[in-house]
TrEMBL record:
Span of domain GFO/IDH/MocA-like oxidoreductase: 130-254
Protein name according to UniProt: Gfo/Idh/MocA family oxidoreductase
One GO molecular-function entry: nucleotide binding
Domain Gfo/Idh/MocA-like oxidoreductase N-terminal: 4-122
A Pfam family of this chain: GFO_IDH_MocA_C3
InterPro entries recorded: Gfo/Idh/MocA-like_OxRdtase_N (IPR000683), Gfo/Idh/MocA_Oxidoreductases (IPR051450), GFO_IDH_MocA-like_dom (IPR055170), NAD(P)-bd_dom_sf (IPR036291)
Organism: Candidatus Desantisbacteria bacterium CG1_02_38_46
PANTHER family noted in UniProt: BILIVERDIN REDUCTASE A
């Protein structure tokens, strides 16, 4: 069987995850990776045995490539996504789709015009506890959802050491996409308005002009939610993340806590709870909810099916976080266009 050719634009930390899936999945071939940073493009090209480039045009003009992952930093998805979609490539874009509603709408419109598939990588929809929670809610096991509360945070090194672009994003743009998508997906409801408070202190002192922490209240059609995010979890926090979500219903409650993923290691000098459920090599095969949505997207292209995450849901996600950002700046309730 002829293999579909694939490519990745932006092969930093997360783009490499996409490259690894394409290199391993027998249905496709990783043809080429692209990164503005030549050293990184070359390194990943060598590691996954494919071509590499620093110019997106080399992918756009290659007629054999059908699927392209966009994993550039949060605020620069637009140009690469539009260029690839307009060249007829099916695109899977990292979350958030964009950091402005205007950019998100432009990407969706380019994909619709070119009649290509577009999916945003909300990978927690493949994360087993959330999948089970959705099934329980749909079965009516906790009655009608009334109130949700969730936290998703990162240890401070994510903001201070991982990225040069932290000041152009923030915990709200980097982490809320997951929590907010889960809330909308689990309840099947739309967010109507938001009110948010945040603090810029620790990261600002380190020269990174973004929020340390944000707390937001969301009013949905028939329920409400509180979400909280921090980019300054202390470096001594035993896990890279803090991640939990509770759904209170009329007849029950669901609690999910993924901060501890079932493994605690008291090593010689460190107490650690490793992040293992997203991706793990087990006997030479990759398992976890990180590769699954990328594999799902390949299947959708092969079988001409609509991906599980709809472009409109990804746009609403951006609308909600843009409204949160406005509320943070103005100190008042911000309405979400639905
Ligand atoms: N799904 C998740 O849980 C998850 C986790 C981490 C990151 N992400 C998302 O993935 C995206 C990338 O994040 P990351 O952690 O890999 O960041 P990163 O900084 O490690 O990698 C981004 C890469 O893109 C390259 N780049 C920048 N502009 C480019 C351009 N115009 N063309 C080509 N390459 C370009 C950079 O040189 C860098 O190598 C972000 O949107 C982020 O939110 C998702």
């Amino acid at each position: 069987m002829k293999k579909i050719k694939t490519a990745v634009v932006g092969v930093g930390i997360f783009g490499e995850e996409h490259a690894a899936v394409y290199a391993e999945d027998e249905r496709v071939e990783l043809a080429i990776v692209c990164d503005l940073n030549e050293k990184r493009a070359k390194e990943i090209g060598k590691k996954y045995n494919c071509s590499w480039t620093t110019k997106t045009g080399d992918i756009a003009t290659n007629k054999e490539i059908e699927i392209v992952s966009i994993a550039t930093p949060d605020f620069v998805h637009r140009d690469a996504a539009i260029e690839m979609a307009s060249s007829g490539k099916h695109i899977i874009v990292e979350k958030p789709l964009a950091t402005t509603v205007q950019d998100a709408e432009a990407i969706i419109s380019a994909a619709k015009k070119a009649k290509v598939k577009l999916m945003v990588d909300f990978h927690n929809r493949w994360n087993p506890p959330f999948v089970r929670a959705k099934e329980e809610i749909e079965k009516g096991n906790i009655g009608k959802p009334l109130m949700l509360s969730g936290k998703m945070s990162d240890r401070i090194e994510v903001a201070t050491k991982w990225f040069k672009w932290s000041g152009k994003s923030g915990p709200h743009w980097f982490l809320f996409p997951h929590l907010i998508d889960l809330i909308c997906w689990l309840t099947g409801e739309k967010v109507l308005d938001v009110y948010a408070i945040g603090k810029k202190e620790v990261l600002k002192k380190a020269g990174i002009d973004t929020y340390d922490l944000v707390q937001a209240m969301l009013k949905l059609e028939n329920c409400f939610a509180t979400v909280e995010t921090s980019w300054i979890l202390p470096s001594t926090w035993p896990s890279l993340i803090e991640f939990n979500l509770s759904v209170h219903g009329t007849e029950g409650r669901i609690d999910i806590d993924l901060t501890d993923q079932g493994l605690r290691i008291s090593g010689k000098n460190v107490y650690n709870m490793p992040f293992i459920s997203g991706k793990m090599e087990i006997y030479d095969r990759t398992h976890g909810f990180v590769p699954m949505p990328i594999k799902h997207f390949i299947g959708c292209v092969l079988k001409n099916k609509e991906p599980l995450v709809k472009p409109e849901e990804a746009l609403l996600n951006v609308r909600i976080i843009e409204a949160i950002t406005k509320s943070l700046q103005k100190g008042e309730v911000s309405f979400v266009k639905t």
